Fold this protein.
Amino acid sequence: MKEWLTAREISEERLPNLPDTKRGIAVLAARENWDAHPYARKRSGRGGGMEYRYLLLPVAAQVAYVQRHGRIGSDHVKLP
């Protein structure tokens, strides 16, 4: 399971209680000051931008994301 996601990747997941556009996620991230959180980091590589750990998302979005991509009983899902 991918733990760090870009605004585009978050929007493409169409998670509950989150905007479904890259711009919408960027506006939400700015309003809630996500970039200052320890679960935010600068994206390495071409284009730059930010990446956000899925644990920064609202609880309903986290649950939906883990249900789609997590594997219970494996080392793919790491708890904080």
User: Anything to note?
Assistant: The mean pLDDT is 91. The chain has three helices and three strands. Residues 59-69 form the longest helix (11 residues). Strands lie at 4-5, 40-42, 50-53.
